[in-house]
Design goal:
Layout: E1 6-9, E2 15-16, E3 32-35, H1 38-45, H2 67-73, E4 82-87, H3 93-104, E5 110-114, H4 119-128, E6 136-140, H5 144-154, E7 158-162, H6 179-196, E8 199-205, E9 224-229, E10 236-244, E11 252-258, E12 261-264, E13 283-290, E14 293-305, E15 313-316, H7 320-334, E16 341-347, H8 359-371, E17 379-381, E18 384-385, E19 391-392, H9 397-406, E20 411-415, E21 429-433, H10 436-446
Parallel strand pairs: 4-8, 4-9, 5-6, 5-7, 7-8, 13-17, 15-16, 17-20, 20-21
Antiparallel strand pairs: 1-2, 1-3, 9-10, 10-11, 11-12, 13-14, 14-16, 18-19
The structure holds thymidine-5'-diphosphate (TYD) and magnesium ion.
Thymidine-5'-diphosphate binds near residues 89, 90, 92, 125 and 129.
Length: about 450
């Protein structure tokens, strides 16, 4: 349809079909401007505001139906925001979004677009999950233009695209899932979300080899990036915010996969600890802080004589580069050489620890494995170690200690600056170390 160009008088707002030097209605000169033209639109839109003029009413948010997901999002779903949910195939992306959308559709209009499964499969899964969502609409479609056209008609407040790798823009010749298609499809959908103020979830598969064609290229285009973590063998699933324009990054939500879908775990601090009291060499408990929540995890090390010319260094769930540095520290400041050993470190349960507060736990786990000395299960540690072998404080030390005490730990080794002034509390004895050598000495005395 061709829209007729129209002109409007700036003074009296009278419309005219053609431009003229003088307004017919009010007689003013040079006041006619084209309406609906891009130039007029930009002239209006481009107006700078001073910070204090911008209204700061708190952003309205919709609850996502699962409190743990709200927590990761920073308190709910913001209208018009675009959220990328990434993760390995089969980890639970579709499951959590079907649950969320079903819950949200009780209050809002919601549209779930599936390009991976048929509408019947999604509906069947929803039924199996016991969800009654009469207002949740389903669409099995992969053409982005058709999706946007339907979304304009249905005007949902929340829209899910599952997944961005299956949809395509027909004007591009590349196959769905290619970098160009993923980027263009996402750009069109993001534009739609912003102009219509629709909250948009994009599902993205992360594949081992094809990471670049996957969600990574989208991270800068969206408001929040959430990634699923967790062992496929374990029932537990973590969702971590690695970018969030509306909340804290590194915030995590913890879920357990059940017959009835994903259930939230509201008190997960001890979730990743083994319950048996067995003590094994090479295993140390770390009090880590993920987002605003303390979490106790088991750092494991296995150090064994190497038959190879280049011994292996493998870090799972931890920074591999940093492991090399820590092993050099262990040699220089602890006197334990690992140059002829294979070194494996791992965080049990498929958790990923991104903070340097794990340094001390890694070093003690390595020492314990190297000397074949088991560590008591009543010990908890944290702390960053500098290149000079100094123990550096980490954020929220008190909270970590409080959580450990609550879970029944009896001893802690931490940087001196994180140790409470008056010993420990609640039955937790805290040793504050200045140097790595001090921490190691205390550790070997106690274990
Ligand atoms: P799914 O959400 O389809 O994964 P994704 O969309 O990330 O590829 O999750 C599928 C897995 O979850 C599948 O292996 C079966 C399991 N599952 C359950 O254990 N319980 C359930 O209620 C559902 C729906 C799935
Ligand atoms: Mg899926």
């Amino acid at each position: 349809m061709k829209t007729r160009v129209q002109f409007e008088c700036r003074d009296c707002h009278a419309r005219a079909a053609q431009w003229a030097g003088r307004c017919d209605a009010c007689g003013a000169w040079n006041t006619l401007i084209q309406v609906g033209s891009p130039a007029a639109a930009t002239r209006q839109a481009a107006r700078a505001l001073s910070l204090s003029d911008v209204s700061c009413e708190s952003v309205q948010r919709f609850p996502a139906g699962l409190a743990e997901l709200d927590r990761v999002l920073g308190g709910g779903v913001v209208p018009g925001s675009v959220i990328l949910l990434g993760g390995d195939p089969g980890i639970g992306k579709s499951t959590i979004l079907i649950q969320t959308l079903a819950a949200m559709s009780a209050e809002l209009s919601a549209l779930y677009v599936t390009g991976e499964e048929s509408a019947a499969q999604v509906a069947l899964r929803g039924r199996r999950l016991g969800l009654s969502a009469p207002h949740m609409k389903l669409l099995a479609e992969t053409d982005v233009e058709a999706i946007i056209a339907l979304a304009r008609r249905e005007a949902p407040r929340v829209l899910v695209i599952d997944s961005i790798q299956t949809v395509y823009v027909p004007t591009l010749s590349q196959a769905p899932g290619s970098v160009a298609q993923v980027r263009e499809s996402a750009a069109a959908l993001v534009r739609f979300a912003k102009e219509s103020n629709t909250a948009l979830f994009l599902v993205g598969h992360v594949t081992k080899e094809g990471q670049l064609a996957g969600p990574r290229v989208l991270e800068h285009m969206v408001d929040a990036v959430l990634y699923f973590e967790g062992d496929s063998g374990s029932r537990y699933r973590l969702i971590r915010a690695i970018k969030n324009r509306f909340g804290a990054v590194n915030e995590i939500g913890v879920f357990v996969m059940t017959e009835g879908g994903l259930r939230e775990v509201t008190n997960p601090s001890a979730l990743f600890l083994r319950q048996d009291a067995e003590t094994a060499p090479g295993s140390v408990i770390l009090a880590t802080q993920e987002g605003t929540r303390p979490l106790l995890v088991e750092v494991q090390a296995l150090i064994d004589e190497s038959a190879a010319a280049n011994p292996r260094r493998v870090a799972l769930g931890l920074d591999g580069q940093r492991l090399g540095m820590l092993l050099a520290l262990l040699h220089r400041h602890g006197g334990h050489a690992t140059g002829r050993h294979d070194v494996f470190v791992n965080v049990a349960g498929g958790v990923r620890v991104t903070e340097t507060a794990s340094d001390l736990a890694v070093l003690l786990a390595c020492t314990s494995s190297l000397l074949n000395r088991p560590v008591g299960r009543d010990l908890v540690v944290f702390g960053e170690v500098g290149l000079a072998g100094e123990m550096r404080p980490v954020p929220r030390g008190q909270e970590r200690l409080r959580e450990a005490a609550k879970l029944g730990f009896k001893r802690a080794i931490v940087p001196i600056a994180n140790a409470p002034k008056r010993g420990g509390d609640q039955g937790l004895t805290v040793f504050g170390a200045r140097q790595l050598s001090e921490a190691l000495e205390h550790f070997l005395k106690g274990s």
